[in-house]
Amino acid sequence: MSLQMVSTVSNSSLLQPGFSLLNFDGHVFFFGQKGWPKRSCPTGVFLLDIKQNELKMKPVFFSKDSCYLPPLRYPALCTLRSNARADEYQYIIHGGKTPNNDLSDKIYFISLVSKTSKKMTFQCIEKDLGGDVPEARYGHSINVVHSRGKSMSVLFGGRSYTPLAQRTTETWNSVVDCLPSVFLIDFEFGCCTSYMLPELQDGLSFHVSIARDDTIYILGGHSLQNNTRSPNLYKLKIDLPLGSPAVTCTILPGGISVSSAIVTQVSDNEFVLVGGYHSENQKRLACNTIVLEDGKIEIVESVGPEWTPDIKHCRMWFGCDMGKGSVLLGIPGANKQIIPDANYFYILRCKGAEEDKEEELITQTCSQTSSEDPGDSTPFEDSEEFCFSAEANSFDADDADTYNEDDEEDESETGYWITCCASCNIDINTWVPFYSTELNKPAMILCSSGTGHWVHAQCMDLSETMLLRLSEANVKYFCNKHVDLNKGLQTPQKVACLKKPPMKPLRKKKTMKLSTSAKKSFLRRLFE
């Protein structure tokens, strides 16, 4: 194994724990940025361009018929093929956290529809499901199994927020393990079915799952209820006959007590397990080789790389599978850096030196799922601070298209955690819900003064009744600072104008002209 540092040229602060990577045709795309997408890249999906050990990010476009895809962190993600040997595939994305810490229960299909040297276009479609639909969650896994010529997706594990009926002020934003149910999802008919298996007693999250044909192996994971990392190795077998599916679970020996590990595929039936945690504050620096052959799994310890002192002594790390036996690793940067959120990144190559030289001759690196066998792995994080995802490669594109985060507005001045007024005391680290309608973020209301600005309802001393009334009524609101300036400045109601009939013009009187004899006769009669 070899370890090489990668320098980030720009916008590395977007690469934060919880992101995912998509690999299409050897090109790697970043998804799940920190914060909401901005105008420089409204899709929130970027091409990762790694050339000469430098990492750049370039915006990606969506087709006109695509739906909106929020930047989800810690989602479940895997590839979906029409059959086990198909070359074309698309990605399934389920669940995850939004930048507002809301949990998603939606499922998306994303595929590459066009590719040029300067522009990549994706299509994103939201799928509607019926039946036993999985609740919103994060830190779970999703895999695709193939049996008897049919395919189904299998969803397991994860965490969600405490149910509303069980919440208190102190535990309002607390998370719990999801029930250890196994969900079978048939995308052809859009239906879900859940199964409770006696072998699965505790909920797991941030575990590793590897799928091969009709079998899924689940390794490690963290249980919040027991605060343990499971040493069990579970084997899920899914049979898809003409009738109802059959799901069985077997507990195998030889498991590893680990969470947040990364799996990368190095050959047709061989995988390498790296990273993870023995406990909350203890990283797992050991590596293991996983071999799947003849319906069996074998896990043996392998020689790891020479870790750098920075990696050895850091408290946390995060990263993602890059495909072809390579892993992208990240560790927090020093506090003295100019960019406070910047991280250091490394590429770990798990193959031998000769195999690495052979790969250098290939212009495009294949993804882990593009080999002959569709065995895919889904790694997850065990903490809010970490995440491992999927693949990366270099791409010759015009550097003028590189995304520049410096062109964007400061995120600290927008969103729910702004300083809305001089007396604002809303802090993301200490905030607790104040209104019954709040969950993960404070209620806000728009002040109509000038161009308008948002303020926290709690800072304006609004009662819950008044807040509901203002949200339902179509009226203007002015904050405490601008209310005096706008008193009486209400738009007058429109008054219907009275229709007045047009005035008739005065008629001119007609005059008669008399002859001289007539005038004399008139005067004679007047004086007689």
Automatic annotation (TrEMBL):
It comes from the Eukaryota. The keyword Nucleus applies. It is found in: Nucleus. Gene3D superfamilies: Kelch-type beta propeller (2.120.10.80), Rag2 PHD finger (3.30.160.290). Keywords: Chromatin regulator, DNA recombination, Metal-binding, Nucleus, Zinc, Zinc-finger. GO terms for biological process: chromatin organization; V(D)J recombination. GO terms for molecular function: sequence-specific DNA binding; zinc ion binding. Residues 415-492 form the Recombination activating protein 2 PHD domain. One of its GO terms (cellular component) is DNA recombinase complex. Zn(2+) binds at C420, C424, C447, H453, H456, C459, C479, H482. The keyword Phosphoprotein does not apply. PANTHER family: V D J RECOMBINATION-ACTIVATING PROTEIN 2, V(D)J RECOMBINATION-ACTIVATING PROTEIN 2. Belongs to the RAG2 family. This is V(D)J recombination-activating protein 2. The lineage of its organism: Eukaryota, Metazoa, Chordata, Craniata, Vertebrata. The gene is Rag2.
